[in-house]
Amino acid sequence: MLNFDPARFVSIQQGAVGLGPALDKTVSGLLDAGARNLYFLGAGGAGVLMQPAAELLDRSGAFPVRLVRPAELVAMGSVDLGAESIVVLPSLSGTTSESVEVLEFTHERGAKVIALTGHADSPVAEQADFNFTNFAEDDTSSESFYLQSLLLVLSIMCARGEFPRYEEVVGELTLLPELLLEVKRAFEPRAASLAEAFRDEQYHILTGSGSVWPEAWYYGTCILEEMQWIRTRPIHAADFFHGTLELVENDVSVIILKGEDSARPLVDRVEAFAPIVSDKVTVIDSASFELPGLSADVRSLVSPVVLATVLERLSAHLEVLREHPLTTRRYYRRVDY
């Protein structure tokens, strides 16, 4: 595979899954100590990657959870943030200024901070109450953060008696790193083909729903815009027919991401409409990939992980064909998530 180290990839994702027991112990201790709510406070793309887990807890559990932009929390505050709050702070570099600032802000209010970092020798890792470091870089961080946040939320639900299949599901997740490697290999020819089709495109509409909507937003904003300087319009499938459909013409690229949860029919509507008016419709469906050993409900939980892993392959080919390395920026040299 182009610009890819299989052993490195599998090791990083195994590291993410391997944090499960320690995360579970930490979460259980905080709940026993009286924690009453949870804040996900990731800056930029790292915050977006927390959304599937936050929404899973919001919809399937009764523990109050909020997904808030750190800079906005510092600017506006929150009446529910205090000594009985758990703060989850993902930061790959551990140096992002907004993350450092919100860590100090939440500490001043007595909250306990769980940091998810890629580097242990960083301000966020060193100042958090509990730090979990799993080394990763831009090309492997999406899957890692998705998995860590999922494990954390499942632990909360299990501790509260809201997720009896915890041990079974965690067992299945240990299979995922090797399965994702095979998914990448299976997608490689299509990744090359899509990159060839997209190399000169300067505008894409991206859509998804449920747990994979954040991946549509993330890939459009953090990869195509930030790393390739390509204009995008991420739009939730539920909102597609409330305005964005008027922008679809014959030569407009529409990228449709499909997951396997109960929100899938929302994307089906877009998939049925878009080819009527555009010749440039691309559908990438997590259900099309083989994941032996994973049950249907686990597949629905990891749909954004699967899509992130195949889109990385598309990015690897795009940067070569467009002669634009993913590390090239106009206004700063590297991304600090």
Describe it:
The protein has helices at 6-18, 20-32, 45-48, 51-60, 70-76, 97-108, 123-127, 138-159, 166-173, 176-198, 213-228, 264-277, 296-321, and strands spanning 37-40, 65-67, 85-91, 112-117, 130-133, 203-208, 231-236, 253-258, 281-285. It has two domains: 6-173, Rossmann fold (3-Layer(aba) Sandwich); 176-321, Glucose-6-phosphate isomerase like protein, domain 1 (Rossmann fold, 3-Layer(aba) Sandwich), CATH 3.40.50. Helix 12 links the parallel strand 8 (253-258) and strand 9. It has 337 residues and is an alpha/beta fold. It starts with 5 loop residues before the first helix and ends in a 16-residue tail after the last helix. The protein has a five-stranded parallel sheet with strand order 2-1-3-4-5, with helices on both faces. A four-stranded parallel sheet has the order 7-6-8-9, with helices on both faces.
